[in-house]
Amino acid sequence: MGLGANLWKILSHYSQFYFVSIASVLGTGILGLPVTLSESGFRPFILSFVICYFVQVLTIFFFTEVLQKAYYRNIEQLQENDKDNAPIHLEKHELHTYGSDYDLSSKQGGTHPIIFHFCQAKSQQFVFSQTIEYEKSSIPTIILYVLFILLTLLSFVWIYISYSDISKLKRKRLATVFFYSLVLTKFRDHERSKMVTQTLKRLLSIGLFILNNDPSNVPLMTNDDDDDDGDNVTTSVTNTKYYIKSSYKADIIKRCLPNLHSLGELLLPCFLRQVFTGTVLLALLCILISYALAGSQAFTALFNIPYIKMIPIFCWTWTFVVVFLHSFIQPIISILTFLKGTLFTATVIVTLLVGLKIQNPVKSDYSAIGDSFLMSTIALGGLMNVMPMMFAKLKQTREEIIGFNVSVFLGLTTCVILNILWCWSILAVVPQSSTCLSTNINDSVHIVFNLMNDSQIHGQCIQSPSLKKSALNGEISTVPLTQILENGEFSYFQYVSFIVQLFIITSISVSFMTMGSALHHTIKGVVDSYWNPTLEAETSLRKYGSIFEYITVRRIAQWIASLLIFSIVFGIAMSNPKGFKLILEQAASLFQNVEVGLFLSIMIYKVSTREYNHYILPFQLPSWSHYLKGIIPVYFLFAVFYDIYHIVRTYLK
């Protein structure tokens, strides 16, 4: 592979993993971390943050190994399943093991498709069958022929532009299929309506193909034959005169790709599987609730909309994007994350310049390191929830696994650097604690913006904006920053306030989509685990039209389950509008630390046993690295116990 091809692969493929990693990590840190520094200051934060970063790096590499071994184990179980006997045909390049040392297709040999016996039922669909209906045409058929050929070629150009990995389509010879299906198919006289109908169906399938980013939606079409005898069609797969479109095809192999729910089912003891799935859902729910509150605050500050009215608008807009446009948003997330990173870098630089002019005194207190310690686990967490979703995009080769690890590692490192610079700049501008303004100037002070519509007067004074005050009011860190920059002696920095607000809106929206996608991906895994292939065949909606190639009963069940879970996010956000810091620091931190410290540690131990050691991985960690895996449970379980202690102490005060 040449230099140009390598650069293109890095930009088009690995950059998605890099930006999605940033999108999943960067949101909570920039919103909640500075608020927790009101007591501890900067130096204790740096200490806890660097330690957390080191442990998170270990988590990335060990979890990638867990994902590889879980995937190969699922494939092996699929091959050993002899109870079901309907063949599923897959081209070799569609397999995620293609090109790796553990290449399943090599067992088949040659260029033939590999056959898996997995499904109990298989539906067949014949495309472009003969018709006996005729219609007199007032327009010469040759003109329609030319028009539809041009339309089909334009559609193929559309696919060529929209689908990034066109090499897969070339292997499937999609262009040849489209061209021969329209040009060389034998038509009877005056069959215009049939051709129009079939062409429109194909164009609809093309649209669904691009919407779902899945080649299995594209209809398979061949030349018609004069022999109308269809008795042998159902008895032979390889000798048939028609291409038969299987209902499942590559979707069966895709179900072998691990998600968080299937990892629990495979690697955890029976009594812990449901607990793990519940913990994952609760951790994602808490993070999404905090994003819903933070995003609503950011939009409220920018557009001066009532805060309570903004919560349902923010929640349901991005919920429908995540649930119904799930296949679209990963490339969009990459683009928006690039924009988010650019805006954040500009925001940090400008805020640093402002901080150099203001230079607030910063007090450090190592006895208060606990707050920043808990928030650090949240600020650098979240990768475990999105890594299975990104892993599904990989081919199981050494090059791709290394590229994946490096991309996620660089994404985490970028977030660490930006978070440290951001916290320093916030501390330089926003005081750690409030000062009480004297009563004789109360009347002259004009409070421009008050997020919660609460009185700013406590006793006989007005509390100035500070990190401590924001922590008590459940505000994100940019609220006191914008209050200071928009009022008083620093009003000439108002442009900085606008940049900060624009960045926060972009950042929270991208983070909500990223973590929402991880939640939706997990819910889909739960639905799939209880879904019977026979039930899917019996409830097939394909007889009602081509659009039901995409809208299936199983997908509808996934949508309903996701909407129910997201409605919980909305309900809690509406009932606790001041709970941003509380939810992040106590609930989200607790569930996420349990997820990594307990369940991931068990998974890492499980895949290191003899049962999983025989798999030849494309990229395997060196033997000495396994001495480090004990650090993960020690660190995160300590965080769990400290979190419980922190919660008890808070409620006993």
Automatic annotation (TrEMBL):
This is Amino acid transporter transmembrane domain-containing protein. Keywords: Membrane, Transmembrane, Transmembrane helix. The chain crosses the membrane at residues 17-37, 44-63, 142-163, 275-294, 306-325, 332-353, 373-392, 404-427, 492-514, 556-575, 626-648. It comes from Adineta ricciae (Rotifer).
